[in-house]
Amino acid sequence: MKSISQLLETADQYTQDLPPLPCKPVLRPPLSTYLDCALHDPAATPERVVQLCEDAMDYQYATVFVNPLFTSLVKKTLDGSGVHTGTTAGFPLGAYPTEIKLAEAKAYLDLGADEIDMVMNIGLLKAGEYDFIFEEVHQMAEAVHAQGALMKVILETCLLENDEKIISCLICKEAGADFVKTSTGFSKSGATIEDIDLMRRVVGPQSEMGVKAAGGIHTLQETLALINAGANRLGTRMAREILEEAKQVGIE
After folding, report:
1. Phi/psi of residue 232, each to 5°?
2. For 89-110, how does the pLDDT look when each residue is reduced to its tens digit (9 = 90+)?
3. In this predicted model, what pLDDT tens digit does every residue of 109-165 receive, in sequence order?
4. If we measure between CA atoms, which residue out of 223, 229, 213 comes closest to residue 244?
5. Domain chopping of the chain, boundaries
6. In angstroms, what is the C-alpha Rg of the chain?
7. What is the set of active-site residues?
8. SS (H, E, C) 117-182
9. CATH T-level fold of 4-8+32-248
10. Rounded Cα distance, 215 and 189, in Å
């Protein structure tokens, strides 16, 4: 395992000259398997959650992401469909003690979550507390993996400088996270082509780590552009509309 000083040395090199894309990203149909459909509206009702699950089963999204309260409802509704259940920890600000995020993750896994998207502690990253960031991500990854689930780290890239995005990606990869993710959808902006390109270059090929784009993804054109930049998962509330648009132009 690389030390923080080694990761910082690599980050300095990447700040000067990013590595090339590990390979040209290619869409591997079906497009629906790239999409996480999210419903984080604080006014969401059980009826809306069930409707989203029904859409997810019809279109075969990768995962349905909801507020933690509805995790068990989603798990029950999706049972046997092949669509995964996802929820969040430390959401949307990230500024929670590690033990709270761990308790959240363990509780939601017990409720049936297959994937946990955790928000990084952005303020401590900016303060240079890299050992803290590493330890938190590592503990979360171990707890989530112990129950056979996936763990993504939300960086909130719109709040970070490029050098902070680079060191965040390097730390998350070394600490054992499965994905790095751009955004919560609750901050200043969401996923950009430039951020996805940077993140993919830093973490390497999809076989080593996933990159999830989220926030502000509304159209098929945006979806394909983000996949072409290196995203292999996308979080959006517009999954059905994107897939209908794809069907009209002959994309599976």
Report:
1. -115, 10
2. 999 999 999 999 999 999 999 9
3. 999 999 999 999 999 999 999 999 999 999 999 999 999 999 999 999 999 999 999
4. 223
5. 4-8+32-248
6. 17
7. 117, 181, 212
8. EEECCHHHHHCCCHHHHHHHHHHHHHHHHCCCCEEEEECCHHHCCHHHHHHHHHHHHHHCCCEEEC
9. TIM Barrel (3.20.20)
10. 7
